[in-house]
Amino acid sequence: MGSLTGAQIFVESLYKEGVETIFGYPGGAVLPIYDVLYDAKFEHIMPHHEQGGIHAADGYARSSGKVGVCIATSGPGATNLVTGLATAYMDSVPIVAFTGQVPRAMLGTDAFQEADITGITTPITKHNYLVQDVKELSRIIKEAFHIARTGRPGPVLIDIPKDVLQEEAEFVYPDNINLPGYKPNYDGHELQIKEAAKAINQSKNPVIYSGGGVIISEASNELRKLSKKGNIPVTTTLTGLGAFNERDKLSLGMLGMHGTTEANLAISNADLLIAIGARFDDRVTGRLDSFAKDAKVIHIDIDPAEVGKRKIVDIPIVGDVKRILTVLNKMVDKKDRKKWLALIDNWRKLDEMSHAKKDKKKLSPKEIIEAIDELTKGEALITTEVGQHQMWAAQFYKYTKPRSFMTSGGLGTMGYGFPAAVGVQVANKDSIVFALAGDGSFQMNVQELATVAKNKLPLNIAIFNNGYLGMVRQWQEMFYDRRYSSVCLKMQESCPPGCSSPGDHCPVTTPDFVKLAEAYGIKAKRITKAEEIRPALEEAINSPQPYLLDFIIEEEENVFPMVPPGGSLDNMVLKEEE
Amino acid sequence: MKHTVSVLVANESGVLARIASLFSRRGFNIESLSVGRTDNDDISRITLVVEGNDRVLEQLTKQLNKLIVVYKISDLTQESVVGRGLALIKVKATATTRSEIMQIVDIFRGKIVDVSTDSVMVEITGDEDKITAIEELLRPFGIKELVRTGKIAMARGKK
């Protein structure tokens, strides 16, 4: 191909990796890249903040299974990627992020827009590179994509000095990868799988605890087979939602702090816990020493460091979930486990207590999400921010397929969901996409309304507007004596100090989201009455344009059930104190 | 318990920073660390002494293994190994004490590598206990300055 500049090599290498879409924001250090992109064949989506760009790349990756690609310039452009990288790292999302860097001769001199981004991102990337020589660029890009998408996936950052982008070299895309320090293990240990099958066949009360790893490994079918064959109930983590059809009788829904009663009690009473592609996060386990305390534990995961990290495991199996389940399923006996399933059905009735209809003036978030669920038959692609609406989205939407729920589980990033929905819609042009948001979270990356408008993405944005940072308010209500400190989004100087009684007298200082959307040229509607919910949703769904719905919900609605922080899963608060 | 861990890593810039970052982030305590290249120019060896029980060591090993730049990790604690450190000790010495100091250094098979009117510099190699022992014996004379390397270690025999 002759000699190419670094920027041209960048583009050619991305073609070789099959990249179709890039989320990027230009700037001084990446000017050479943008000059080549002018003629390149990528779909280039420009966010309105680099954080929006990387979250969009994340949503693109989670919903499609492909590697998300984003570009930012040096210095502040690069540091704006930090939260997005940490989000992707915690939830094992494959991303390759490219950042510009000051020319090599100026490295370390505190040059204009210089930041040590490889140093900054070392603890929040699977790996990162500073390209010192244009001859290494194509090899590094190939390695980065390989590292990002294989093993336990994760974000990889490549920092490229501007003069490397301008320098020329022969373009050769390597055929092979030589990484002696990176050899993920895919096939589980055969004897361990046999041990696991034996334990499953002997178990009376087994539970499958299924995490995001099942989705990443594309192992939903294998999970269903295991569950059906042995009549083993399945609970999923927040990031695992969708791996198992929640309309199935064997589904227990989500477990953990805001998990269902049946899931948490099943875990607490199980004699065997089958953890698959999950990592015993503290929001899942509650008090660790009482988590599945009577159960033997099988842990299947591709990352050996997750096995035994928090919970001591009886039968560890390190490898790819799909491959391991395929082997395991052949050894598992058919069983009906009627007694165990009947016991679980009783617990399901308890869970209904947490969601009993209350007589309240304003909208119930449950009703809204259930209406979305019905109208989209559980097949919409849902993204969320972080907080109460996130938990309601997890509880009340019945996910039917993998890669349909995109949420920041590990890092808990407010400001993730709306920009992520941009990436989800770009990757799934014909799908119905819903960005669910709280009125607090939505404002963290609200500038992406411009991206949505510009690209005419037919996104549906639903804001659960309660005038509060609802989840923090709930904790202040339950554990801090109702002292509402800095959680009211409407609070003004004229308000009584320490006010904890919201109502119609409150000033309106959060933006008028309808007007805000309209300012960007996006259709919007405010919904205050229950009978308006469905018609408004139908209109938004059927509209080929983006649509924002501002649902005014009950101010002090809480998320239940709830395991108080540090408590045991079998010790749930089921509902509001009367 | 103390563990000696030998880590083979890529000999490239930033590797030590990655390892140090991992240790501080995950809360592992490094007691000593030494780095040098091996017989292969592309590979360096880091020898670490860390404090922790078996579970801590297991996590540390697994987390280190996740770094792309880490090639191989061996725990040299259980094995029959030769472990060595080096110390340079500057001790106050007068005409009257100098010969006594030299005797001690001789017993420990150390070397006097520098002499001045009021001090001598002692070079000593050996395992940790030996270096600590001579340090204690020299202390009454007055230690002006002391520098110790981290431990390096190698398994005995065919390995």
Itemize the secondary structure elements and their pairings.
The complex is a heterodimer of chains A (578) and B (159).
Chain A: E1 3-5, H1 6-16, E2 21-24, H2 31-37, E3 43-45, H3 50-64, E4 68-72, H4 76-79, H5 82-90, E5 95-101, H6 117-121, E6 127-130, H7 137-149, E7 155-161, H8 162-166, E8 168-170, H9 190-202, E9 206-210, H10 212-216, H11 220-230, E10 234-236, E11 251-254, H12 261-269, E12 272-276, H13 282-285, E13 296-301, E14 315-318, H14 321-331, H15 338-354, H16 365-376, E15 381-384, H17 388-396, E16 405-406, H18 417-427, E17 433-438, H19 449-454, E18 460-465, H20 470-479, H21 513-519, E19 523-527, H22 533-542, E20 547-552
Parallel strand pairs in A: 2-3, 2-4, 4-5, 5-7, 6-7, 9-10, 9-12, 10-11, 12-13, 13-14, 15-16, 15-17, 17-18, 18-20, 19-20
Antiparallel strand pairs in A: 1-8
Helix pairs in contact in A: 1-2, 1-7, 3-5, 3-18, 9-14, 11-14, 12-15, 16-17, 16-22
Chain B: E1 2-10, H1 15-26, E2 30-37, E3 43-51, H2 54-66, E4 70-75, E5 81-92, H3 98-107, E6 111-115, E7 119-126, H4 128-138, E8 143-148, E9 152-155
Antiparallel strand pairs in B: 1-3, 1-4, 2-3, 5-7, 5-8, 5-9, 6-7
